[in-house]
Amino acid sequence: MRTSIEQYLNTSYRPDREFVDGLIVERNLGEKTHSSIQGNLIGWFWDRRRELPVRAFPEQRVQVSPTRFRVPDVTVVKTSQPQGEIFENPPHLCIEILSKDDTMEYMQEKIDDYLRFGVEYIWIINPRLRKGHVATKAGIVEAASGILETKYPDIRVPVAELLD
User: Fold this and answer.
1) Listed residue (88, 91, 93) closest to 66, CA to CA
2) What angle do CA 44, 45, 48 make, to 5 degrees?
3) Which residue in 117, 118, 53, 113 sits closest to 81, CA to CA?
4) What is the distance between the alpha carbons of residues 50 and 109, in angstroms, rounded to a whole number?
5) Among 161, 123, 153, which Cα is nearest to 50's?
6) Residue 53 in contact with residue 45, Cβ under 8 Å?
7) Phi and psi, residue 108, nearest 5°
8) Domains (range + CATH), the chain
9) Could you write out the DSSP letters of every residue in 3-38?
10) In the chain, what is the straight-line distance between the N-terminal and C-terminal CA atoms, in Å?
11) Which of 70, 95, 96, 128 is the most exposed place for a label (fewest CB within 10 A)?
12) What CA–CA distance (Å, rounded) separates 39 from 17?
């Protein structure tokens, strides 16, 4: 069923949902592994809040286009970048943790939305395969070294730390 942006923005969803061209889209989550990795990421960034010029937000609405709102599992913004209650400027990093029901088509659409919007880095964490991938304008590559990375600022997160 189609709905308006105003209705979407004025409705609370538990868990939060995305808005894509007039449609409310449920997100796949709610499993212990997904929740654990998300918590580990938030904790990792919190522990380094004094040394890294970034802040991490769980399940933060990001308006990636006039008719699309995405809700990454974790959104990381530079502290120098102003954001409102709903992020309308491209974050430095969006992190997606794959759930068992996520499809490649669904994830690719989200990655494309983030990149078109200007997000510099997208991390995709696959708990079942115990792997991470990094998407940028240059493409998607596996973090073969086991380290998810960004530049400016330099962030290096070992995938294994997130999975334990």
Assistant:
1) 88
2) 95
3) 53
4) 34
5) 153
6) no
7) -65, -40
8) 28-163 (3.90.1570.10)
9) --HHHHHT---SS--EEETTEEEPPP---HHHHHHH
10) 40
11) 128
12) 19
